[in-house]
Amino acid sequence: MMHEPPVWLMVLITRDHAGDTAAIASVFSGRGIQIDSFIGFGSNPQASGEPQGRIMITFHAFADRCRTLCRVLVSLEAVAEVRCFAEHEIPAELAARTAAVKQLLATM
Predict the structure, then answer these.
(1) Closest Cα partner for 28 from 10, 40, 42, 15?
(2) How far apart are the C-alpha atoms of 4 and 44, rounded to whole Å?
(3) What pLDDT is recorded for position 53?
(4) What is the mean pLDDT of each run of 10 residues along the chain (108 residues)?
(5) Closest CA to 60 of 92, 28, 96
(6) Distance spanning both ends of the chain, measured CA to CA
(7) Separation of alpha carbons 59 and 10, rounded Å
(8) pLDDT for the residue 46
(9) What strand order describes the sheet that includes 79-86?
(10) Which regions of the chain does DSSP assign to beta strands (E)?
(11) What pLDDT does 51 receive?
(12) Are 78 and 20 within 8 A, CB to CB?
């Protein structure tokens, strides 16, 4: 009997350019992985003056698929950094804030 893949939380640091979100989403869809939640914030200026975005994605996948996603995503020009957390590794404050945002959006 096949069991449900675990939940992962991925945090991406991006260059914040048009089309970056589509490129990132296509990595998931091209591998048949459904995104559970996708929250992004852009235009955070860095010391270099370049805008930088942050995207938080939750999804279900087995560990080998998650490793493949990380490897492909970090190779994209749009992505500067990938941090991936297994369900039991997600920082408590981040999990609570993610749940709060999802709950807020569900009521809108």
Answers:
(1) 10
(2) 36
(3) 87
(4) 84 88 93 90 67 89 93 94 91 83 83
(5) 28
(6) 38
(7) 8
(8) 61
(9) 35-45, 51-60, 7-14, 79-86
(10) 7-14, 35-45, 51-60, 79-86
(11) 75
(12) yes
